[in-house]
Design brief:
Bound molecules: phosphoric acid mono(formamide)ester
CATH architecture of the largest domain: 3-Layer(aba) Sandwich
CATH topology of the largest domain: Rossmann fold
Number of strands: 9
CATH superfamily of the largest domain: Aspartate/ornithine carbamoyltransferase
Shape: globular
Distance between the termini: 25 Å
Structural class: alpha/beta
Helix content: 25-40%
Length: 316
């Protein structure tokens, strides 16, 4: 495995299986009496967040602490970034503080790659979401959630049909998930209005549909995406009401879904826009499970990238 995680393209299929298997083991250990493992004692993980986050930042912090690493949380708001300090100077300041891993979220696509390639720091870089580019640990936790819900598939998704619905254009979650879910064999369909699909999407290894109702009964997984109003400078659909009517997951659509199928959403949700409250809180929804699975999946990523003691050493 590479010692950076900037994109799902940094991972082989073997790496992904190792991450999911490690997450499974870590979940078993940390849901028992021993919540905390000593494996990253003495290591420092810096959460470097230039964009807002609830789930990703807190779960990386929890994951690092459960592995006994020291954690420094840096948020651009309230830091010297607001006085004009550059990414380079910020990164070098954190390096001087002894960071072993930097978990970076940034509004610019490619920021994580820039940091990793720059030579400014020696630390392992983990992309926690860069612009509209990628969010690899979100895709890993989504794959982990799907593998737990469909355990008979033994981490082979080739019998699964997965719909990713909504604002594909602005979604780093969609990009990472398309790469990862197709690597694992899933048949992925992107469903969105044409205005919310990126240029060149026809070359992606997916089916494209503009109609959520056309094949809704056939999907094992329906992953709803947030409408990213903060990244929209133009009108991409006539009105929120019209969008919810055509592309929102509501009770009527929920009832039509396949037996044992699940509803996912990376969060944060616009309840009433892309997903109704009843759908988000329904028995099919695994949205809260995704959040919990984020901790063990990120523990596995930190554990494997930072090369802590082996699990058998920890367990002995
Ligand atoms: N899914 C996700 O990235 O959520 P946050 O923005 O809250 O981290």
């Amino acid at each position: 495995m590479k010692n950076q995680l900037l994109s799902i393209n940094d991972l082989s299929h073997e790496d992904v299986i190792a991450i999911l298997a490690t997450a499974t083991q870590l979940e078993k250990i940390t849901t028992g009496p021993t919540k905390k493992l000593p494996t990253l004692r003495g290591r420092t993980v810096v959460n470097l967040f230039f964009e807002d986050s609830t789930r990703t930042r807190i779960s990386f912090e929890t994951a690092a602490k459960r592995l006994s690493a020291d954690v420094i949380n840096f948020s651009a708001k309230g830091s010297s970034v607001s006085k004009g300090e550059s990414l380079k100077d910020t990164a070098q300041t954190l390096q001087a503080m002894g960071a072993d891993a930097v978990v970076i979220r940034h509004g610019s696509s490619g920021a994580a790659q820039r940091l990793a390639d720059s030579g400014w720091i020696n630390a392992t870089v983990i992309n926690a979401g860069d612009g509209t580019h990628e969010h690899p640990t979100q895709a890993l936790l989504d794959a982990y959630t799907i593998s737990k819900r469909f355990p008979d598939n033994n981490r082979d998704f080739s019998s699964l049909k997965i719909a990713i619905v909504g604002d594909i254009l602005h979604s780093r979650v969609a990009r990472s998930n398309v790469l990862l879910l197709t690597m694992m064999g899933a048949k992925v369909t992107l469903i969105a209005p044409p205005t919310l699909l990126p240029v060149g999407v026809e070359k992606w290894p997916v089916n494209i549909s503009y109609d959520l109702d056309a094949e809704l009964e056939s999907f094992d997984v329906v992953m709803m995406l947030r409408i990213q109003l903060e990244r929209m400078s133009n009108y991409y659909f006539p009105s929120e009401r019209e969008y919810a009517r055509r592309y929102g997951l509501n009770e009527t659509r929920l009832k039509r879904m396949k037996k044992n199928s699940i509803v996912m959403h990376p969060g944060p949700m616009n309840r009433g826009l892309e997903i109704s409250a009843a759908s988000a809180d329904s028995a099919r929804s695994v949205i809260i499970d995704q959040v919990g699975n984020g901790v063990v999946t990120r523990m596995a990523v930190l554990y494997l990238l930072l090369g802590g003691a082996t699990l058998s050493e920890v367990l002995s």
